[in-house]
UniProtKB/TrEMBL annotation:
<dbReference type="InterPro" id="IPR036277">
    <property type="entry name" value="SMC_hinge_sf"/>
</dbReference>
<dbReference type="GO" id="GO:0007062">
    <property type="term" value="P:sister chromatid cohesion"/>
</dbReference>
<keyword id="KW-0547">Nucleotide-binding</keyword>
<dbReference type="GO" id="GO:0005524">
    <property type="term" value="F:ATP binding"/>
</dbReference>
<dbReference type="GO" id="GO:0030261">
    <property type="term" value="P:chromosome condensation"/>
</dbReference>
<comment type="subunit">
    <text>Homodimer.</text>
</comment>
<dbReference type="InterPro" id="IPR003395">
    <property type="entry name" value="RecF/RecN/SMC_N"/>
</dbReference>
<keyword id="KW-0067">ATP-binding</keyword>
<dbReference type="InterPro" id="IPR024704">
    <property type="entry name" value="SMC"/>
</dbReference>
<dbReference type="InterPro" id="IPR011890">
    <property type="entry name" value="SMC_prok"/>
</dbReference>
<protein>
    <recommendedName>
        <fullName>Chromosome partition protein Smc</fullName>
    </recommendedName>
</protein>
<feature type="coiled-coil region">
    <location>
        <begin position="670"/>
        <end position="921"/>
    </location>
</feature>
<keyword id="KW-0238">DNA-binding</keyword>
<dbReference type="GO" id="GO:0005737">
    <property type="term" value="C:cytoplasm"/>
</dbReference>
<dbReference type="Pfam" id="PF02463">
    <property type="entry name" value="SMC_N"/>
</dbReference>
<feature type="domain" description="SMC hinge">
    <location>
        <begin position="520"/>
        <end position="636"/>
    </location>
</feature>
<dbReference type="InterPro" id="IPR010935">
    <property type="entry name" value="SMC_hinge"/>
</dbReference>
Length: 1186
């Protein structure tokens, strides 16, 4: 497993999409300060879930999004993707390649993805658990992480050691388990409260359920008796109805006969009226025929005029068409003459074209022979040219070589003189270098002394910082505890608020009345209007009992309205206490016996609004509160058992002497609920005030801590400046040593070069003589070849002249052929046009002849039609006379039929009078039948309204053996009435509450079981963590001892647990003694020694538990060159198991790298990535700085 690729877009100084590919081994990223190379390690940390923007060198999320430059706009988001090779399946995910991506927006929101699928940060953390990768692991180490490893803060140091020991996954699971445990306990508290509330509802509902079942059984029995009673009544009414219906049938038959006669008369009237209508219709019809005939006569006259006009026009057209036919005959004769002439001309031109084509073919063959001959001559010339070019090239090469050799000879002479002068200069430089080296060593000692003093000062401030920081941590812990308490009380308060809102603990009827805002005058339940001190809560709750759920109303009308609402909706029973009619009588203080256990009259220990005084005294004014049961007995005896006495623990001595007592179940009762709400509200208020004070103290400590931190930073700055001076001087000493060594080497090289130059001078002279002889031979060869080329060129010129002559002849023939071809083509086109024209003229002649024939036929047809229409007109005039005669006859018939119609109407009037008398008799019978039917319907309605049953359905349950006894029905009704208000829903309510009770009981048991399981799991994890940490810490310590000695070239290093009895919380001490030093505190180490110690710890971790890849951000910056070499060598050894990406500017690290990337900032604010070779890296950094 290794890091394959990083993609950055919009992150810090990388606005453009930047892709960095990695291979196994060591990859270094180099660049000058400020170029943005550390932004790459920040991008990796951010993608892996770093939430602290400050640790990424920013204040808020938008600081890591590209802010814009002179030429590029700011971006609204950034994204970083890490692609990891997972072919070895180290990550628990079924992909051979895993891409982790994070996208950030200016709004402060972030999105995480695994293989482009949205996920949570938690998913990424769990995926990378126990790999060393992540912000808590050791896969990304920068200078700040080095400080954390050596920090005096134990929690900072332990994180890396726990990850290295492989217990971070256990600690993560343990923390998750503890969170789940707290949530489960909170759930248990909530469930328990609800469980006890439901438990109180079970028994009353069970009583209501039994009552409801009895009610249903009585109702069913009453139903059978009443239905049978109704069925008997219905049958009696049926008998009476039958008699009346029979009588009605006789009268209806008589009525039917009269109506039949009337119908016949009405039918005669209808027929007569129809006959009249028919005659009227015929009269109208004859009138229409007369009108139509006259129209037709007029139409025929119009057609006769039109036909005579058409015949005249045809005669005129016929004369014009004969003239046109004569012109067409003359045109076709002229066309035939022209066509014959053109065909003769076409034949002559075709013969001339064939002759010219034969001449062209002959010339073409001659030209091809010339071309072939010329081509052969050109090939020979080219061969000779290639030879002469080769000879001249050889000559030029030798000329160039001669020139080069002469130059070399001059250079050798010049260099011999230069070397002599350089040897003299080198000797002078060696002398100066020795003096500078001595001066630098003196300065180095001065700065090292100053550094020791600064480290002592820093140690003092660090101790003060840790003391203040521990104090601040305690304050923060206290703030968290206070916040937890506020949340705890708020959670409980919300439960009680919800119970108040839902009226938990009240019976169903009470709840429904209190919830119904439409009921006027409802002032609240007794439990809602009184307040009781904790001491008296149990006594008052027992004293009031079910009266706690009594509802107080303004007057009796309000109570009556509420009772009607409960009764109408079958919601149960409630006791109401109207203020207007409740009177009270309270025991006077003088009546109380002088006995030690008397505490108070019950009405005196409750708080309430003065308007409820009468109600409270009515309920509690005659009840005495005693200290205990013995006192209660004494009080009752002293007052002749006249009043009820209640003890503080809820025992009751009733009026008359009976005692009620035993244990009282403690749960969230109606009286204590308001007190608890008030207590929780006050507690939350006090805690919030306390929280404000603690936060103020926290701010003061933080400010003081910043002051100390600023002092430490100032000292750190001085230390860094001093270390830089030391490093600079060490670098200068190193450079001077290197310079001295280089000067010595240069002197030896120059002396060796001086001897070599002498030998080169002799050899070069010999080479010049050889080259001159080769140049002379090449000149002779080139002159011979040129003569041969000139001979062939002369022969070629003669052939080319003949070729040009024949080409001209060929082109002239071609031109004649083209012209002749065009003439022939034009003549053929004209022939075609004349032939087409002939066809068109012949067609026109035929059309004209046809038109003349058509005109003659049309004239003949129109003449015949004209004669026919004149005959039809005469016939229509005769028909008109006949129609007028028929119309006169129809009018005489109409007068005769009208007389008959009048007689039929008088007959119908007499029958109407007889029918009316019969209908009156039938109506009276219908009235009696309707009354009986209404009576019958009333029983049908009773069946439906009372039992939702139709008559045919009722017959199915009719029982002949049941006598519908009214007394028995009344007895059952009385029993039902005596049951009082029945809550039918209580059956379902009981089942629902019982089911809810069982469910919460099961949940309560499950939660209790879960708590035990989680606690056991956490305990097991702690034990595993101890074993795992101890085992791996010992291995790590052994590795550290070896690595420390190897990196420092000696000395002693060790890791120790300061508290072996508390392995999981114990501080870890780092012992580091470089060779020749016996320091007791790692803070006394120099910056370079501290860095090397931390690197030794990191390398020890990687030896024992290699992470797939590791990002090192300038952690070797404080090391000198000798330590850099050892660091780089060790890095090479570890790279066989771990892939390294180093951000560096040290040459030693670069030389150990397999691959190098350079980061530059050619445009201000925008980083650019380039791939480099190792030898380019240092010069790249230097050039970028310049």
């Amino acid at each position: 497993m290794y890091l394959k690729k990083i993609e950055i877009k919009g992150f810090k100084s990388f606005p453009n999409k930047t892709e960095i590919l990695f291979e196994k081994g060591i990859t270094s990223i180099v660049g000058p300060n400020g170029s943005g190379k550390s932004n790459i390690s920040d991008a990796i940390r951010w993608a892996l879930g770093e939430q602290s923007i400050k640790s990424l060198r920013g204040d808020k999320l938008e600081d890591v999004i590209f802010a814009g430059s002179e030429n590029k706009k700011a971006m609204s988001f950034c994204e970083v993707s890490l692609t990891i090779d997972n072919t070895e399946k180290i990550l628990d995910i079924d992909y051979s390649e895993v891409t982790i991506k994070r996208v950030g927006y200016k709004s402060g929101e972030s999105e995480f993805y695994i293989n482009n699928k949205p996920c949570r940060l938690k998913d990424i953390k769990e995926l990378l658990l126990d790999t060393g990768i992540g912000k808590e692991g050791y896969s990304i180490i920068e200078q700040g992480k080095i400080d954390e490893i050596l920090s005096s803060n134990p929690s900072n140091r332990r994180k890396i050691f726990e990850e290295a020991a492989g217990i971070s996954k256990y600690r993560y699971k343990k923390e998750e388990g503890e969170k789940n445990l707290k949530i489960t306990k909170d759930n248990l508290d909530r469930i328990t409260d609800i469980y006890y509330e439901i438990e109180k509802q079970i028994q009353p509902l069970e009583i209501q359920k039994e009552k409801a079942i009895k009610y249903i059984n009585l109702k069913e029995e009453l139903k059978v008796l009443e239905i049978n009673s109704y069925l008997n009544e219905i049958q009696q009414v049926d008998v009476q109805l039958k008699e009346l219906i029979d009588h009605k049938t006789i009268l209806s038959d008589q009525l039917s006969d009269l109506e039949s006669k009337k119908c016949n008369e009405e039918e005669n009237i209808s027929k007569t009226e129809q006959t009249l209508l028919d005659i009227d219709s015929k009269i109208n019809e004859q009138n229409e025929i007369i009108y139509d005939t006259k129209s037709k006569i007029d139409n025929k006259a119009s057609k006769i005029s039109l036909l005579e006009e058409k015949i005249k026009n045809i005669e005129s057209n016929k004369s014009r068409q004969k003239e046109e036919l004569k012109v067409l005959n003359e045109n076709i004769k002229r066309n035939i003459d022209n066509l014959e002439k053109m065909k003769l001309k076409d034949k002559d031109l075709t013969k001339t074209l064939e002759r010219l084509n034969d001449q062209k073919t002959s010339i073409d063959n001659t030209i091809k022979e010339y071309i072939q001959d010329l081509k052969e001559k050109e090939n020979k010339i080219e061969e000779f040219k290639d030879k002469i070019i080769y000879v001249l090239e050889e000559k030029n090469k030798n000329n160039a070589k001669l020139s080069s050799l002469k130059t070399t000879l001059e250079n050798i002479n010049e260099r011999r003189e230069d070397v002599k002068n350089e040897i003299k200069d080198i000797n002078e430089k060696i002398k100066n270098s020795t003096a500078k080296l001595s001066e630098c060593k003196t300065k180095e000692n001065e700065y090292k002394a100053k550094l020791i003093q600064l480290n002592i000062q820093k140690d003092k401030y660090n101790k003060e910082y840790e003391l203040v920081k521990d104090n601040l941590e305690n304050i923060k812990e206290s703030i968290n505890e206070t916040n937890l308490k506020i949340n705890e009380y708020s959670s409980k308060l919300n439960i009680f608020y919800e119970m108040e809102r839902q009226y938990e603990g009240f019976n169903k009827g009470v709840k429904e009345v209190l919830k119904n805002k439409n009921l006027s005058g409802i002032l609240g339940a007794v439990a809602q209007v009184v307040k009781v001190e904790t001491e008296y809560e149990t006594a008052i709750e027992i004293a009031l009992g079910s009266s706690l759920q009594n509802i107080i109303t303004q007057d009796e009308q309000n109570a009556k309205q509420a009772i009607e609402y409960l009764k109408r909706n079958n919601l149960g029973r409630v006791t109401f206490l109207p203020l207007s009619i409740i009177s009270s009588k309270k025991i006077s203080d003088s009546e109380l016996p002088n006995i030690n256990g008397v505490l108070a009259i019950a009405s005196d220990v409750v708080e309430y609004d003065s308007k409820f005084k009468g109600i409270i005294q009515y309920l509690l004014g005659r009840i005495i509160i005693a200290k205990d049961i013995d006192s209660a007995i004494q009080i009752a005896r002293a007052m002749n058992f006249k009043y009820k006495v209640v003890t503080l623990d809820g025992q009751v001595l009733n009026a008359g002497g009976s005692l009620t007592g035993g244990s009282v179940k403690q749960s969230s009762n109606l009286l204590s609920r308001k007190r608890l709400i008030n207590e929780f509200e006050n507690k939350i208020k006090d805690l919030k005030e306390e929280l404000t004070l603690k936060k103020d103290e926290k701010i003061k400590k933080e400010n003081y801590l910043k002051q100390i931190d600023n002092m430490i930073n100032e000292i750190d700055k001085d230390i860094k400046d001093t270390e830089k001076h030391i490093l600079f001087i060490e670098s200068e000493i190193y450079k001077l040593n290197e310079e001295f060594s280089n000067l010595k080497n240069t002197l030896l090289r120059l002396e060796k070069e001086q001897n070599g130059l002498k030998e080169n001078y002799t050899y070069t002279n010999e080479m010049i003589k050889d080259v001159i002889s080769k140049i002379e031979y090449a000149q002779i060869q080139s002159e011979d070849i040129q003569r041969k080329i000139n001979d062939i060129n002369n022969e070629k010129l003669q052939k080319e002249n003949l070729y040009k002559r024949d080409i001209n002849i060929y082109n002239e023939l071609n031109l004649q052929i083209v012209k002749l071809t065009e003439n022939i083509k034009s003549i053929k086109s004209e022939i075609k046009r004349l032939e087409d024209e002939k066809i068109e003229i012949e067609k026109s002649i035929k059309n004209k002849e046809s038109d003349i024939k058509l005109s003659e036929d049309t004239k003949h047809n129109l003449s015949e039609e004209l004669i026919l229409i004149k005959v039809e007109k005469e016939e229509l005039q005769e028909k008109l006379q006949d129609i007028n005669s028929r119309l006169k006859n129809y009018k005489l018939q109409k007068e005769s039929i009208s007389v008959k119609l009048k007689n039929h109407k008088e007959n119908v009037k007499g029958l109407d009078s007889q029918i009316l008398d019969l209908k009156d008799s039938i109506y009276k019978l219908d009235s009696k039948i309707n009354k009986l039917e209404l009576s019958q319907d009333s029983y049908f309605n009773k069946l439906w309204n009372e039992y939702e049953m139709a008559y045919h359905e009722a017959l199915k349950i009719k029982k002949d053996d049941i006598i519908a006894d009214k007394r028995k029905i009344d007895t059952i009704k009385k029993e039902i009435k005596n049951l009082g208000n029945v809550n039918i829903d209580s059956i379902k309510e009981y089942e629902a509450v019982k089911q809810r009770y069982d469910l919460y009981k099961e949940q309560k048991n499950d939660l209790e079981s879960s708590i035990h399981s989680i606690e056991a799991l956490i305990k097991d994890m702690e034990q595993n963590m101890k074993i795992e940490f101890k085992k791996n810490f010992e291995k790590l310590n052994e590795s550290f001892k070896v690595v420390f000695k190897k990196l420092f070239g000696g000395g002693y290093g060790e890791l120790r647990l300061l508290d072996n009895n508390n392995i999981l919380e114990s501080d870890i001490e780092i012992i580091a003694k470089p060779p020749g030093k016996n320091l007791k505190n790692i803070n006394l180490l120099s910056g370079g020694e501290k860095a090397l110690t931390a690197i030794a710890i990191l390398f020890s971790i990687l030896l024992n538990k290699p992470t797939p890849f590791c990002i090192l951000d300038e952690i070797e910056a404080p090391l000198d060159d000798a330590n850099i070499y050892r660091y780089a060598q060790f890095l090479r050894e570890l790279s066989t198991k771990t892939q390294f990406v180093t951000i560096t500017h040290r040459r030693g690290t670069m030389e150990a790298s397999d691959y190098i990337y350079g980061v530059s900032m050619q445009e201000k604010g925008i980083s650019k990535l380039i791939s480099l070779k190792i030898e380019q890296a240092q010069s790249f950094i230097d050039e970028e700085v310049i």
